[in-house]
Design goal:
Helix content is 52%, strand content 15%. It folds into two domains: 154 residues, Rossmann fold, CATH 3.40.50.720; 100 residues, ProC C-terminal domain-like fold (Orthogonal Bundle). The protein contains ten helices and eight strands. It is α/β, with parallel strands linked by helices. It binds 1,4-dihydronicotinamide adenine dinucleotide (NAI) and (2S)-3,4-dihydro-2H-pyrrole-2-carboxylic acid. The site of (2S)-3,4-dihydro-2H-pyrrole-2-carboxylic acid (A1CAB) has 4 residues, from helix 6. Pathway: Amino-acid biosynthesis; L-proline biosynthesis; L-proline from L-glutamate 5-semialdehyde: step 1/1. One of its GO terms (molecular function) is pyrroline-5-carboxylate reductase activity. Its main location: cytoplasm. One of its GO terms (biological process) is L-proline biosynthetic process.
Length: 264
């Protein structure tokens, strides 16, 4: 599989890192006007680093546009004539709709919106996918690529904005919860490094319990909350302060913002 990534910033370089780790390509073009973030990949076999977006498109079958919403339109326009029917065009840009991409490169092209998160660099992304009519034929290919880099879910395009909030922004939300836990642990007497390890490993254990058992979180909570014990005391104090409500309100605010980005 010949893959190009156009835009190798935070997300593009994370995707590149995951692809390189899995060696899941026959050639990989990494194209950016500033190639600093991917210099480390120069030594990798079958990887070409360039600032020539058109060359990267021409030499590849799958092209992943990982540009900011304010740049993607101009870049897509500039390479549109290089995009042929065999190409599978993927875009990770938040709020950049399939209809907009079709207007730039043609509705007869295979177009797939991809919404991964930065955990893609270590093969642990939750990646949501939505295709245009033509791109439906290539959705299995997209699943094959991104299943190597974590888990995938195919969803209607109308849900891509919500998926962006839950899965892509979600990385930041979970990080903040982990950070707050370390702050609590330090207050209870742990050194910062110890606090970090305790928080991260406990978070990992919680997610793993759900993944492996398929249980509902509340079932696992019931197993921890000894009657009149310290866990329920802490949980209820958090809820009195609005923990669940704060999370839900944050998710909704993020969703409102992304819908505003879409329409601005
Ligand atoms: N960072 C994240 O966790 C996620 C980001 N996204 C989306 O991914 C997209 C990229 O986000 P980031 O990687 O965070 O942005 P970024 O700013 O880190 O990366 C964008 C890259 O595009 C390059 N670029 C700009 N103009 C260019 C041009 N004319 N030709 C070639 N390269 C050019 C920049 O030099 C930069 O390296 C955005 O649309 C964002 O909505 C989606 C999911 C998660
Ligand atoms: O914050 C943002 O707008 C982008 C989309 C999801 C993650 N980063």
């Amino acid at each position: 599989m010949k893959i190009a990534i156009i835009g190798t910033g935070n997300l593009g370089s994370s995707i590149a890192k995951g692809l390189i780790k899995n060696k899941s390509f026959t050639s990989l073009y990494l194209s950016d006007k500033n190639t600093a973030a991917v210099q480390a990949f120069y030594k990798e076999d079958y990887v070409t680093i360039t600032s020539d977006n058109a060359e990267a498109v021409k030499k590849s079958d799958v092209v992943i546009f990982a540009l900011q919403p304010r740049h993607i339109e101009a870049v897509m326009e500039s390479v549109a004539k290089c995009i042929k029917k065999h190409h599978v065009i993927m875009s990770v840009a938040a709020g950049f709709e399939i209809s907009k991409i079709e207007s730039l490169i043609g509705a007869d092209k295979n177009i797939i919106r991809v919404m991964p998160n930065t955990a893609i660099s270590i093969g642990k992304s939750m990646t949501c996918l939505a295709a245009n009519d033509k791109g439906e034929e290539k959705i299995e290919l997209a699943k094959k690529i991104f299943n190597q880099l974590g888990a995938t879910m195919v969803i209607p395009e109308e849900q891509i904005q919500a998926a962006t909030v839950i899965c892509a922004s979600g990385i930041a939300f979970w990080m903040r919860l982990i950070r707050a836990t370390t702050q609590g642990a330090i207050q209870l007497g742990f050194e910062a490094e110890e606090a970090h390890e305790l928080a991260v490993q406990t978070c990992f254990g919680s997610a793993s319990l759900l993944l492996e058992s398929g249980k509902h979180p509340e079932q696992e909570i019931d197993r921890v909350t000894t009657p009149s014990g310290c866990t329920i005391e802490g949980l209820n104090a958090m809820e009195h302060q609005g923990l669940s409500s704060a999370l839900i309100q944050g998710i909704v605010a993020s969703f409102e913002k992304i819908n505003h980005l879409k329409n601005s």
